[in-house]
Amino acid sequence: MAYPTLLQETDLGPVSLRNRIMSSGHQTTLVEDYLPTEDFFAYHRARAQGGAGLIVLEAHSVHESGLLTDHTIDASRDAIVDEYRPFAEEINSLGTKLFCQLFHGGRERYSGDYAPPAPAPSDTPTERLHVIPCPMETDEVYEMIEAYADAAERMDRAGLDGVEIVGSHSYLPAQFWNPSLNDRSDEFGGSLENRCRFTVEIADRIRDRVSDDFTVGIRLSAEEKHKHGLSLEETLPIIQHLDEAATFDYWSVVVGSSSTHKGCSYIVPPASEDRQIVRSPGEAVASVIESPLILTSRINTPAKGEEMVSDGPADVVGMTRALIADPDMPAKAAEGRESDILPCVSCNQGCIGRYQEELPIRCTMNPVTGREREFRTLEAAESAKEIAVIGGGPAGLVAASTAAERGHEVTLFEQRDVLGGKIRTYADLDHRGAYGEWVEAMVNRLEAYEVDIERGVEFDPGQSSGYDVYLLAIGSHGRKPDITIDDDAHAVTAVEALENPEELGESIVVSDWDGNWSALDLASTLGSEHDIEVITSAYTAGESVQQYRQNQLLAKLDELDVTLTPHHRVREVKESNIELENLFSESVDERHGVDTVVFAHGGEADYSLYRNLVAEGAQVERVGDCWAPRSLDEAVWEGFKAATEI
Fold first, then answer.
1. In 363-501, at which residue ranges do the beta strands (DSSP E only) sit?
2. For residues 29 and 71, is the Cβ–Cβ distance under 8 A?
3. What is the b/e burial string over 461-485, where b = at least 16 CB atoms within 10 angstroms of the residue's CB?
4. What is the DSSP letter of 381?
5. What is the share, in percent, of the chain residues with pLDDT greater than 70?
6. What gap in Å lies between CA 610 and CA 631, rounded to an integer?
7. Strand bridging mode 588-592 / 596-600
8. Residue 433: band (very low, low, confident or very high) from pLDDT cuts 50, 70, 90
9. SS3 at position 169
10. Average pLDDT for residues 558-566, to the nearest whole number?
């Protein structure tokens, strides 16, 4: 067996797992009226079918004051019991154990239609979410303890196998632990014992209310990763006290904090971080506890998971984003089919990024994620057709593999010698993730489905009589704005700049149109060798980038001394200087001594091939940027959707 320890059975308290792979609690927004939907059940069912040993369902609010958003599951109502009973039975029948998170964010809360007072140990505001909480009265603390126990009992009645008390990321239990957030003078403040009392009482009351074969664990941040948060040195005594004063069947360890911009970036660590971010603190925690240890963060391949459980401190590993990208990853690993695993690239766009926009969970690189109810099983085509997919970027790769999987005869034309399109340009950027690995996985799929790949071949419209259907996926090229650019000025697009950095000179202005990835890619990649100013039309550079990624990239730009100028657009480019204009006042300013202006202004589609094919009477479908320049999410989804409809 390739992964003997990772795929080995293990126990978490009274519950036995078939392997050590866990899908950790993560918000899906597949929730309506504070209850899970059929899409929610289908999403998790796929991970159980794919071989996960344990699924921990997302944050379930134990009290109505803890509903983090309008899409939070409410475990304070009895309705949740009947919703979960058949689901829990089904998940168990598939060989997977099912826990859920018991959650209250305290002062850490997003606002919905109405923002009730946020209960917390003290009234210390939270920096990131700008909430000023209401200090809990002593009787309210005891009521909250009882709410945790009530919720746990409901999960036991519903047939779940366990619960996890969420004390991570500076949520309510951790707010009691932290003396800088807890200035209480009652039995829940002051000494270490008192600050831990809230958690100990919760654990004890849950034990009194649930059956003996029900697992009770706790999740916490070993270090909160910001200067006002709990450090590892401060957390270890808390863990030791909790371990002595209460009984937990496992400890689930992460890092980070919701309360600051810096700390929250580690909740779902981006590609710039690796698994070592949690391994080192995990080793420290393992040295002071007896119960099993779960580690989660950037453990995104079976090999990394095996390393963490065989040579590292973990008994179980959270491989959540890997399972978001490919729910069948455990089964494929067990069967030796690693080359067929669709990798997570850690872009954070389709998963946590969509949650923060109150949208249902998706995966940028896997179009089925969040749509399992409709697309978990692809239907074979009624009749096989000859299909030409023109363009080997993300949309074309997905379209070709999906059409071939359904039984069509597919030829893929790519004018370059390599597949992948523009994401090849970004594949080597450390902060951008494993795009190259995703392209390799897609090429493996093309070969497995016997797609005829024509590399280095520009499609000839005269060939249009040879195919039943044409899927046009030729992408777009970089756009320059319709402004005056002198012939002697050096003005290039973002991709051109990344591919030819030696031609840029010393002083660079990046003109950012929409606050998206490209400007941050350029500035963070080139900033150590060049003097860079990002002039953005957005409210801030990176405005459209997922928050955790944005935070870390803006921190890097600060370290590189990159100048950020928001609310402006470049109005004119001359040989060595530019004019810029304030979007609101329309006042004009200048920059002198500029060697290169790089336009990060999105894409521009070429519609000529589409129009030629249509004029010849061909059946043509456009997907991705050649239809209209947008994001990678749309390219992948449209390539998939078009192929399912042929």
1. 386-390, 409-414, 452-455, 469-472, 477-478, 484-485, 491-493
2. yes
3. beebeebebbbbbbbbbbbbeeeeb
4. P
5. 99
6. 20
7. unpaired
8. low
9. strand
10. 97
Q: What is the CA radius of gyration of the chain?
A: 26
Residue 25, SS3? Answer: coil
Please work out, in degrees rounded to the nearest 5, the angle formed at the alpha carbon of residue 19 by the alpha carbons of 271 and 56: 65
The whole-angstrom separation of Cα 583 and Cα 356 is 27
DSSP string for 106-163: TT-----S-----EESS-PPBTTTTB--EEPPHHHHHHHHHHHHHHHHHHHHTT-SEE
Which uninterrupted H or E stretch holds 398?
helix 394-405
pLDDT of residue 463: 65
Nearest of 116, 228, 100, 198 to residue 157 by alpha carbon: 100
- Beta strands 35-36 and 54-61 are unpaired
Choose the weakest-confidence range: 223-232, 268-277, 479-488.
Answer: 268-277
**Collapsed DSSP state (helix, strand, coil) of residue 527:** coil
Q: Edge-to-edge strands of the sheet including 484-485?
A: 484-485, 568-573, 577-582, 588-592
Pair of tokens at residue 10? 């293990």
Domains of the chain: 10-374 (3.20.20.70), 381-476+605-644 (3.40.50.720), 480-603 (3.50.50.60)
pLDDT for res 25? 98
Q: Name residue, tokens 């129009």.
A: 611
29-43: pLDDT as tens digits: 999 999 999 999 999
The amino acid sitting at 14 is P
**Alpha-carbon gap, residue 640 to 570, rounded angstroms:** 37
The amino acid that residue 6 corresponds to is: L
Contact call for residues 165 and 103 (beta carbons, < 8 A): no
Q: Which amino acid is at 642?
A: A
Alpha-carbon distances, residue 620 vs 80, 85, 610 (angstroms): 47, 47, 7
Burial degree of 8 (CB within 10 A; 0-12, 13-18, 19+): middle
pLDDT at position 429 is: 76
What is the rounded CA–CA span in Å between residue 438 and residue 632?
Answer: 13
**Distance between CA atoms of 550 and 265, rounded to whole angstroms?**
9
Instruction: Report d(CA 410, CA 225) in Å as an integer.
Output: 50
The reported pLDDT for the residue numbered 578 is 97
With b for 16 or more beta-carbon neighbours within 10 A and e for fewer, the 82-119 pattern comes to: ebbeebbebbeebebbbbbbbbbbbbbbbeeeeeeebb
Give the per-residue pLDDT at 634: 97
Contact indicator for 72, 36 with CB cutoff of 8 Å? no
Phi and psi angles of residue 436, each rounded to the nearest 5 degrees, phi first: -60, -40
The two three-digit tokens of residue 150, written as one number:
């009530």
Rounded-to-integer distance, Cα 429 and Cα 412, Å: 27
327: which DSSP letter?
T
Residue at token pair 């390599």: 418
Q: What whole-number distance in Å separates Cα of residue 292 and Cα of residue 14?
A: 12
For 482-498, the pLDDT digits (tens) are: 999 999 999 999 999 99
Q: How much is the average pLDDT of 128-155?
A: 97
Query: Taking the CB of residue 358, how many other CB atoms lie within 10 A of it?
Result: 12
Q: What is the pLDDT of residue 466?
A: 84
